[in-house]
Amino acid sequence: MKKPPILLIDDDDSLRRVMEFSLTEAGYRIQTASSGEEGLQLFGKASYGAVITDITMPGMSGMEVLAAIHQQDPAMPVIVITAYGTIESAVDAMKQGAFDYITKPVSRDELRLTLDKALRMRRLEKENVELRAEVTDRYRFEHIVGGSGKLRDILDMAGRVAASEASVLITGESGTGKELLAKGIHYNSLRSTGPFVAVNCAAIPEQLIESELFGHVKGAFTGAIRDREGRFELADGGTLFLDEIGDLRFDLQAKILRALQERQVDRVGGGRPIGVDVRVIASTNRDIDRAVKEGAFREDLFYRLNVIHLHLPPLRERKEDVPLLAGFFVKKFNPGSATGIEPAALTALAAYGWPGNIRELENVVERASVLKRGAMITRADLPDKLTKETSGVEDIILNLPEEGISLEDLEKKLIVKALEKHNGNQTHAAEYLGITRPTLIYRMEKYGLR
């Protein structure tokens, strides 16, 4: 890898030539200056990987050079050179933002190692900035795939919400893209340079969830061998995404409410509150309003989280997005190829109910991309559940009573019958109804079925 040029500033001609020779021998391209004023002129005319400057020089001192360089480029690593008797000045320079200091007489190996370390840090910082810019661009709202009116309305509201500090509650079935929307809000907010920390409240064992959220101190419980930061602390300065918050234990809901109100957390086993600055975005696939009414979810926490409510509709309610999403996933799983989807296969995708929503569609397209026999994904490459004819449905819809019928009562009865048919086995009943098990459980809770 070609090394970037280095600017070397020192009024000692002899030392400057020795350092220039040593670094040139190590493969560096060196530009030298005999004064701070000359060094700043050179710095303004070219791009450098790092700057090495003596502290004590006539005219402009190394400290003044450091300040002037960082005014132009705050991330530029500046290494200062000092005599043993002026180490205090070097420490002051470090406080002012110098990368490191080297004492005279200058060791060739120390000079090279320090410079290598500075350039490595500079490269990592640049890569980090580029990566963050790439991530931020990826989660711009206009890059979220979908053209339906419902989705566009949600993204428009999310774009307006992003600029605020308001808490957001995202509801919707599993697989509708709640975390993707949360990331979009974060990366389009003033907190975009801070961390985005996600925690699935339903996936962490009950005995560990408190420690995961709030951290713990050494000895707080068996296995706590050291102090550990919780997710609230890790998200400090950024966004904390509490996924499936409807599954959170009731006693922990009070602690989250306190953390939001007081902007501080207590580690498990700790006696000292720790201040945190986080924006919380929560999500759930449950009927949270009903949970509040039934006393299963704290009303005060609900209102604290539900400042802005965004509801993501299931994919079956925005079928016009299916072709767009399918095309997006085809490109994702077949990069650089001309793979497409035949019309018959696209028709089957559009006709399916997608109980698993976008996540299920992605899985189907990935499977078809692996199993396809040619350049195009055909109907034969799709799972049987998308292509087989549904039996028995016509008999139900053709026998509608004249006085009308309740859709909810009909759905409830179908769920009961499916469970009876499969002896209460929720997995088999869900497969029979063409929905996922979590969706079945959600609807059983909705209708009060046990």
Could you explain how this protein is built, in words?
With 450 residues, the chain is an alpha/beta fold. It folds into four domains: 6-134, Response regulator (Rossmann fold, 3-Layer(aba) Sandwich), CATH 3.40.50.2300; 140-313, P-loop containing nucleotide triphosphate hydrolases (Rossmann fold), CATH 3.40.50.300; 316-387, Orthogonal Bundle (Helicase, Ruva Protein, domain 3), CATH 1.10.8; 394-446, Orthogonal Bundle (Arc Repressor Mutant, subunit A), CATH 1.10.10. It is built from 20 helices and 14 strands. The protein has a five-stranded parallel sheet, with helices on both faces. A five-stranded parallel sheet has the order 7-8-11-6-12. A two-stranded antiparallel sheet has the order 9-10. Helix 2 runs parallel beside helix 3, helix 6 runs parallel beside helix 7 and helix 13 (322-333) packs across helix 15 (357-371). It starts with 5 loop residues before the first strand and ends with a helix. The model has no long low-confidence stretch (mean pLDDT 86).
In terms of DSSP E residues, the strand content is 5-15%
Which CATH class of the largest domain is shown?
A: Alpha Beta
CATH level 4 superfamily of the largest domain? P-loop containing nucleotide triphosphate hydrolases
Number of folding domains?
4
- Read across the widest sheet, the strand sequence of neighbours is 2-1-3-4-5
Radius of gyration from the CA trace? 31 Å
Output the structural class: alpha/beta
**What is the number of helical segments per DSSP (H or I, 4+ residues)?**
20
DSSP strand tally = 14
Please outline the major beta sheet: 5 strands, parallel
Task: Return the CATH architecture of the largest domain.
Answer: 3-Layer(aba) Sandwich
Q: What's the rounded overall pLDDT mean?
A: 86
Helix content: 40-55%
Could you please say which CATH topology of the largest domain applies here? Rossmann fold
Instruction: Catalogue the unreliable spans.
Output: none
Envelope shape? elongated
User: What's the end-to-end separation, in Å?
Assistant: 66 Å
